[in-house]
Write a structure and sequence with these properties.
With about 725 residues, the chain is of the alpha/beta class. Helices cover about 35% and strands about 15% of the residues. The relative contact order is 0.09.
């Protein structure tokens, strides 16, 4: 199907504009990008429209139009000229992408689901990204609303770090921009990023395009009074402007003024421009079900494209030059459409690639340390002899200290990790030694902590973020998910190898539903995450260092019982000690029963074995990591012993022990002399009182009893 321009209101006869077009803008390019965006919307909508005698094509399976938002975004994109500018955008932001370098062919190829492009057919076509080491990088978008804000704030903070701490002059006067609709300002991400930007005075511009609709809900239901700019006018450290996104003179003036404010180092700014939504929310949506004909017509009368034409013709372009520009756009879009349709379909045999990093892949993703940088750090899995005996918390602190000292791209942050040194004092003294730009406290927002870490990693830093307790990670679930899927859904264009330190599990003789949650299986089930659960100080050193040098994001689980007691103390294995992930430790060798566990349960299992008549009968395996997990070590042991008991602290139902048991049933069934057993808490929250806690969490006595019963089979 050839590119086709949808019917638009006939252009009004040009007259001398009321104002002269602003100097300093490439207005022809802005007009070109606006026309291209409108043409792309036309093409996509036509493929899904039922027309007489023409079958509906449905080539674009999920379509979002930027119609009405396009001109102001094209203006904004023309202002993103910094060498390391960044943008956090959303599904209606394709005009901005075109303005900062997205090709028309890619802009069509991905919605058509073709191979290549910014997702290789893996993501919705308007969920874009643009790696751009020498220009504006558009961070990977997401399909959820509001998740673009905290990574955009993180990019702004990374600009400051590269500029001021790493002394990279190319980051001078660079900015980060967050684009969002008026509906998105009701989300946690918006308020978390606003807090970050204003308290830290980050070089960040919030651009809110207000079409007064959140799908079908009017703006007054999203924002009190329907005007976020007015509501924020007294916000400290925030320069606020309100304007008309349909008026090219007003829109360009407001955006240029705000951009200058941010680039001049005066702090963040917010610009709200009112725009019409000249379409339904998305392809499947029908706005006539919730908007009147009069409302739709009123928006159509505000269409910024005719206003842009009137603004430029004849002041800068003649009637003929505008017509030539329209012809150029039509030809370019048609050429790109033919090229996009000629692209092959995605190769289904490669759909499992890029969940995790592949060092053999020809292209490196943007994010984290390069392969060469990681290789230069070296490391050995052979521990040094005679190291100092350390408790679990001190081993983690020493590892962080060493990595901070040898790699100036490492940053450590979270709630209370700076001056206080963390609620478990794991980071005590690090801020004093390395400064508040490298070890710093954050505002109380887990979404903000993880979102900023994601963008920092994309910028090439090594963020080590602390979530105070496992349960507190729940508000950051969206950011954690988006981080884990990033490499896969961008087809290895982007990755965010962050390390999330996360204490959890029962404490010394105490528990509760908020601080003692384990729930590690949630992250083992999450796409793209490594899940690390050390049981002792030496393993904590090697595994934390491995996580910090990995190209994949990692959950580093620090068990509260190990942080609060001497359990898990071990000799320091050295500053170069790195343990491969996915390699279990055989704690004790045995012949008749395999006991598999991880984390603090390793110590209870070891004590339980010591009480058996013949402790040599039990082989104790500490998995150390559950994603990846050492399948071969467990299978080899069970094939030898014929029996298996799995002990863990997470709930029994759907706990990770079920995965191990399922694997054994499938791959070692004929070697089993008894059913595979699991010992784990009942499916109830962790209780507070010690007696209740002991009734829920596997105890030494119950582990010993279950092991003896299995040996008797």
């Amino acid at each position: 199907m050839p590119a086709k321009t949808a019917e638009r209101p006939a252009p009004r006869k040009s007259a001398a504009p009321a104002v002269t077009p602003r100097a300093g803008f490439d207005w022809r390019r802005i007009a070109y990008n606006t026309l291209v965006s409108r043409a792309l919307d036309d093409v996509e909508e036509q493929t899904n429209k039922q027309r007489a005698h023409v079958p509906r094509e449905h080539l674009v399976l999920y379509q979002f139009s930027a119609r009405g938002h396009d001109m102001s975004q094209s203006i904004l994109g023309s202002l993103l000229s910094g060498a390391h500018d960044g943008a956090g955008a959303y599904y209606r932001s394709r005009p901005l992408l075109l303005a900062v370098g997205l090709t028309i062919e890619d802009a069509l190829g991905s919605p058509l689901g073709r191979a290549g492009g910014f997702s290789d057919g893996r993501d919705i076509g308007v969920v874009c990204n643009l790696p751009n080491p020498n220009g504006c990088t558009v961070l990977p978008m997401a399909g959820d609303v509001g998740s673009q804000y905290t990574p955009a704030a993180g990019w702004a903070q990374s600009i400051v770090y590269h500029r001021d701490t790493l002394k990279d002059a190319s980051y001078a006067r660079c900015v980060s921009v967050a684009l969002g609709g008026d509906g998105s300002v009701a989300t946690n991400g918006f308020w978390a990023s606003l807090t970050m930007a204003t308290t830290l005075k980050l070089p960040m511009l919030f651009y809110i395009e207000d079409n007064d609709l959140g799908i079908s809900v009017r703006g007054g239901m999203q924002t009190p009074g329907g005007d976020i700019a007015r509501n924020l006018s007294s916000f400290t450290n925030l320069f606020v402007l309100n304007g008309d996104g349909c008026d090219p003179h007003d829109a360009s003036g407001k955006l240029a003024e705000a951009m200058a404010h941010v680039r001049d180092g005066l702090g963040p700014a917010l610009v709200r421009l009112t725009v019409p939504r000249l379409s339904s929310h998305s392809g499947p949506d029908n706005q006539k079900g919730y908007r009147t004909e009069e409302e739709i017509a009123a928006d159509a009368a505000r269409d910024p494209l005719p206003k842009l034409r009137e603004y430029l013709v004849p002041a800068l372009l003649s009637e003929g030059e505008w017509a030539d520009l329209e012809g150029e756009v039509a030809r370019d879009v048609q050429t790109a459409l033919e090229a996009a349709r000629a692209r092959p379909m995605p190769d289904a045999s490669t759909v499992a690639q890029h969940v995790f990093a592949d060092d053999l892949a020809p292209r490196e993703a943007m994010g984290g340390l390069s392969r060469a940088a990681r290789a230069s750090l070296g490391g050995t899995d052979v521990p040094q002899e005679g190291g100092e005996l350390l408790r679990f918390a001190e081993a983690i602190r020493r590892t962080l200290r060493h990595e901070l000292s040898v790699n100036d791209k490492v940053v450590v942050f979270g709630e209370d990790v700076g001056r206080k040194g963390g609620v478990h004092l794991v980071t005590e003294g690090l801020q004093k030694q390395f400064g508040a730009d490298r070890v710093f406290d954050t505002s109380l927002s887990e979404e903000g902590i993880i979102g900023r870490a994601v963008a920092m990693a994309i910028s090439g830093l090594v963020p080590v973020a602390e979530i105070q307790f496992r349960k507190y990670a729940d508000p950051a679930a969206e950011q954690l998910n988006n981080c884990g899927t990033m490499r896969w859904r961008t087809a290895n264009r982007f990755a965010a190898p962050i390390v999330v330190r996360m204490p959890g599990g029962f404490g010394k003789d105490v528990g509760d539903p908020w601080h003692s949650l384990s729930d590690e299986v949630r992250f083992a089930h999450a796409y793209g995450w490594q899940v690390i659960m050390p049981s002792n100080a030496a393993d904590a050193v090697g595994l934390l260092r491995a996580a910090m040098r990995s190209p994949n994001p990692s959950i580093f689980f620090e068990h509260r019982s190990l942080l609060m007691t001497g359990d898990g103390s071990a000799r320091y294995p050295g500053d170069d000690y790195v343990l491969p992930l996915g390699r279990a430790r055989i704690v004790r060798e045995g012949e008749r029963l395999t006991l598999v566990t991880w984390g603090a349960m390793v110590h209870r299992c070891a004590e339980a074995i010591e009480g058996l008549d013949d402790e040599r009968t039990v082989e104790l395996i500490d998995l150390r990591t559950i994603s990846p997990w050492d399948r071969e070590a467990v299978l080899a042991s069970v094939r030898k012993t014929g029996r298996c008991l799995i002990v863990h602290e997470d709930n029994l139902t759907a706990g990770f022990g079920a995965e191990i048991a399922g694997t054994l049933a499938q791959e070692a069934f004929w070697h089993l002399d008894a059913p595979v057993e699991r010992l784990a808490p009942r499916d109830i929250p962790v209780p507070y009182h010690p007696e209740l806690l002991e009734a829920v969490v596997p105890t030494v006595a119950r582990i010993r009893e279950r092991a003896q019963a299995l040996l008797a089979v």
